[in-house]
Each structure stands twice: as C-alpha cells, then as structure tokens.
C-alpha cells in the first residue's frame, strides 16, 4: 500500500495546480461597477434549467459520490471552483484562491486485522462491524446470554469471556432508534466489561437489522475528525462487535471460541472549503458578510445496493451546491449593500469538519459574518412543504433572522413550513447534523433551509433524476430572498438573548 502521507501531498499539489489558474483567471475579470444604493433584486437570474444542469453534473457517477478526504471530493471541488470563476465571483479562500485547505484525521483498523468466531472467519467491518477502532488481542470462550438482562447474566461467570447477546429494547426518551442503538453499544458493553467480559458481540434483532442495513457502512472507513479531536485518539479497549440478525443461529451455539487480533492505524487526508465573494456596494456595510453555506461531499463508493455502489448524493447535497451557484448568479448580476460570502464546506459527512474548521478559522473577520443561511437537501418530498431549522426555541438564535426568512417565504414560494423537525424532542436531532451548527454555537445568527429526509437518504438511490426541480428552484428563491433582505437592510440580524442549545 502506498504511503498515505505521500498520497496526501500528491493530492494537495494536484489541487493547488488547478487552483492557481482558476484564481488568476477570476482576478483578471473587471470589477463590477459599484452601486451606491440597493436596487431591485435579481431573482430572475435563478433558473430551473441551471439548477437541473448543475445537479446532474455534480451528482453524476463521474464524481463517485464525492467522499470527503478523497480525490473524488477534490475533483468535484475543482469543478465547483471552475463554475464560480465562470460566474465571475472573487476568490475568498487562502492565498488569493477559491480554496481553504484543511486536514481530516482518519483512524481505522488495518487490513491485517483478524476476527473469528468458532470456525467462521469474519472480515472486520465487512462481515462484522467493529464499533470503535481499537488495538486488541483476544482469545476467549464465547458465551451467549440471551438479551443480556440482569437475570440472564447474573447466573453466569463472565470473567475472561467474550459475551454474545441479542439486541433488544426501544428508546423511551424521544431519541431516534439509531441514536438509542449506538448509545446501547456503549452503555451495555461498559457494564459487561465491568464484570470481566473481554469482548462483547451484539447480534441484531429486526429493528436493529434495519439500522444495520442502512448505516453499518459508516464503520467501513473508521472514524474521522479534525486533528486533535477526542474521537481521533485511539483508546485501547476490549472490542465491541456488531453482527447482522442472520448470525443469531450460529453465534449462540455453545462451545465456540472468540479470536480477535485488531490493530489501528491513523492518517491525515486533505479536504477543502471553497470560498467566494461578491463585494457589497455600501462603503461601510460591504465590510460585513452574509454567508451562504452548503457542503459538496457525500458518501462515495460503498457496498452495492441492488447493483449500485455509488452514493451520488444528488439531494444530499448537490441540490445545495447548485442552489448556491444560482444565488451567486443573482448577486453577481445585482450586488447588495453587504457582501455576499459563499462557502462550500468539505467533509460535512465526516462530522461537519469543513464548517467546524472555517467557523474557527474564517478567511474574513469572524465578527463580520452577520448571518449564515445554510442549504441542506432542498429537492425532495411534497412540492408545497419545507422546513426552516433554527426557527423555534431552543434552536432559534435570532428571531430577527427568522422573521426575515418567514417574510421571504410569504413573499416568494409560500411553503407550508414543517416545524416538527426543528423541535428539541424530534428523534432525528436534525438541527445538529448540518453546517449551520458550528456558526450557531459561536453566536452567529444561523438558519437551515431543507426539504427534510426521505427514503433515499444516504443510499445509492439519491440520484439527480429523483429531484423535484421546480421545488428546488422555489427553495433557492426563498434562500436568496432572505439573504437579499439581510444584505440590504441597515441593521444586522440581532442574536437571541440567552440562546442556549439543549446539547
């Protein structure tokens, strides 16, 4: 296997080789004439045909799902920068380019890691999911304890043994079953380790199997974070294994041996934020920025589902990427009093890494960002419905910004707004899963425009042909009209007094 650090350097140089001509070409364009007063908006510059063309381009198999930290994400980022250059925006990244580079840290099991139960050889993170990367060597008898109730484990000496149990139960506190399940892996295995278990093997029941089928691929790649994140630190601990429901019959057989030799390796990979700007026309207000946010990455190439292994991410989030390009065209045609700043965040699917990095190290003064309008999945579900996350407490961090967004909806598309997904009690915790969050945590007014989840979310079926393009156009109009209002009024949106998230 090639040295990953050498690969990283090669990717970085390749990206920079593309970046230089893009930035230089953009800088050669004549500056737009300065307008001293705000004129009528340029809503007509947002065209359904442009949005459809851009979603089909970015969501094509050519970019192989744009997985964060891969060459595919970097290729897609160069394509986006080329579109931005053609529209005529100023580079606003590092060193006069459209790019802000950062590293993500990957922690994974080595390919030499081995796992077996009885006579079965299991390939880690393909046949059996290892819940957390760990260095471990275990050779122990396996005992099956049913569902692991106190009555079932109380009569067995578990010291020095690997414990197998079937997953059971359901959440009782309003969280999603997926979050409940991942929490169960942590809490129940910790209890078993306390009584001497040296490994824990969870076997899916029917509800857990549905999550296994949809989400187990997240373990294939290991863990990701920014360098220095707590989750990038390898803590050597007994292994926790997750098996599909089909394993129940053979895993509960008596007299089997559990053997594991697991080793962890860690690498740094490049990812990138794409940053561009339309300067404002007002001599003072142009120093302030309305930030339009989205992310360009998705899940890449994974295990095939019905013969398709490319997770194209058309709705998640080629729709947001196309929306920002359309809004750029509108601001380029008619600049506002404040500057319009556009940021495509890399590696969002790895844990909001690009937005965490940019919000902490912005290429403009942090205090100059007056509001963040985030585009996340805007082209599916009922044509007349949408959601504005950050619109109700405890997620509302600026009533001022929310009121501008609600007024823009009434002036434009008039969507019926679903507020259920914005509630602290919603099991999906959707507010916490997109790029507005790091900005909101810093006290910057922020909202998210979304048409919410659907059955093709994070599957290979999220393809360009399934997008509702008239709806995407209306969502883009709504986001633009909000940003236009923020960019032209005298006062910046006021933060909400006493704003505090529930987690």
TrEMBL record:
<feature type="signal peptide">
    <location>
        <begin position="1"/>
        <end position="19"/>
    </location>
</feature>
<dbReference type="InterPro" id="IPR045175">
    <property type="entry name" value="M28_fam"/>
</dbReference>
<dbReference type="InterPro" id="IPR046450">
    <property type="entry name" value="PA_dom_sf"/>
</dbReference>
<protein>
    <submittedName>
        <fullName>M28 family peptidase</fullName>
    </submittedName>
</protein>
<feature type="domain" description="Peptidase M28">
    <location>
        <begin position="273"/>
        <end position="478"/>
    </location>
</feature>
<dbReference type="InterPro" id="IPR007484">
    <property type="entry name" value="Peptidase_M28"/>
</dbReference>
<keyword id="KW-0732">Signal</keyword>
<dbReference type="Pfam" id="PF04389">
    <property type="entry name" value="Peptidase_M28"/>
</dbReference>
């Amino acid at each position: 296997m090639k040295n990953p650090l050498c690969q990283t350097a090669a990717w970085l140089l390749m990206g920079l080789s593309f970046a230089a001509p893009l930035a230089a070409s953009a800088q050669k364009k004549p500056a737009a004439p300065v307008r001293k007063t705000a004129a009528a908006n340029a809503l007509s510059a947002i065209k359904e045909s442009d949005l459809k063309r851009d979603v089909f381009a970015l969501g094509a198999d050519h970019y192989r799902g744009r997985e964060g930290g891969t060459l595919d994400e970097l290729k897609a980022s160069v394509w986006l920068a080329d579109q931005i250059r053609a529209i005529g925006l100023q580079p606003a990244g590092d060193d006069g380019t459209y790019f802000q580079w950062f590293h993500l840290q990957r922690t994974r099991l080595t390919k030499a890691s081995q796992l077996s139960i009885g006579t079965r050889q299991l390939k880690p993170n393909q046949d059996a999911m290892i819940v957390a990367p760990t260095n471990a060597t275990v050779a122990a008898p396996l005992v099956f304890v049913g569902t692991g109730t106190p009555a079932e484990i109380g009569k067995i000496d578990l010291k020095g043994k690997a414990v197998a149990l079937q997953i059971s139960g359901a959440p009782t506190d309003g969280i999603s079953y997926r979050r409940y399940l991942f929490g169960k892996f942590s809490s129940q295995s910790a209890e078993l380790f306390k009584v001497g278990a040296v490994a824990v093997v969870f076997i899916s029941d029917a509800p857990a199997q549905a999550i296994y089928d949809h989400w187990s691929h997240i373990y294939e790649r290991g863990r990701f974070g920014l360098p220095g994140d707590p989750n990038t630190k390898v803590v050597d601990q007994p292994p926790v294994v997750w098996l599909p429901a089909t394993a129940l019959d053979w895993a509960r057989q008596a007299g089997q041996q559990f053997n594991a030799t697991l080793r962890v390796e860690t690498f740094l990979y490049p990812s990138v934020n794409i940053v561009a700007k339309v300067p404002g026309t007002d001599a003072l207000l142009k120093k302030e920025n309305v930030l339009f946010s989205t992310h360009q990455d998705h899940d890449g190439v994974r295990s095939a589902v019905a013969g398709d292994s490319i997770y194209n991410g058309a709705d998640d989030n080629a729709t947001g990427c196309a929306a920002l390009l359309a809004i750029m065209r509108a601001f380029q045609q008619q600049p506002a009093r404040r500057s319009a700043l556009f940021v495509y965040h890399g590696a969002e699917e790895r844990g909001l890494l690009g937005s965490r990095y940019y919000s902490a190290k912005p290429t403009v003064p942090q205090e100059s960002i007056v509001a963040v309008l985030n585009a996340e999945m805007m082209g599916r579900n009922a044509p007349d419905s949408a959601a504005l996350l950050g619109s109700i407490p405890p997620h509302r961090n600026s009533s001022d910004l929310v009121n501008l967004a609600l007024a823009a909806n009434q002036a434009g598309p008039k969507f019926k707004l679903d507020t259920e997904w914005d509630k602290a009690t919603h099991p999906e915790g959707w507010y916490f899963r997109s790029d507005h969050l790091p900005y909101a945590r810093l006290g910057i007014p922020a909202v998210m425009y979304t048409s919410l989840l659907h059955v093709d979310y994070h599957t290979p079926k999220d393809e360009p042909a399934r997008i509702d393009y008239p709806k995407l156009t209306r969502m883009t109009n709504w986001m633009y009209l909000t940003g236009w209002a923020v960019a032209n009024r005298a006062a910046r949106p006021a933060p909400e007094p006493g704003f505090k998230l529930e987690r």
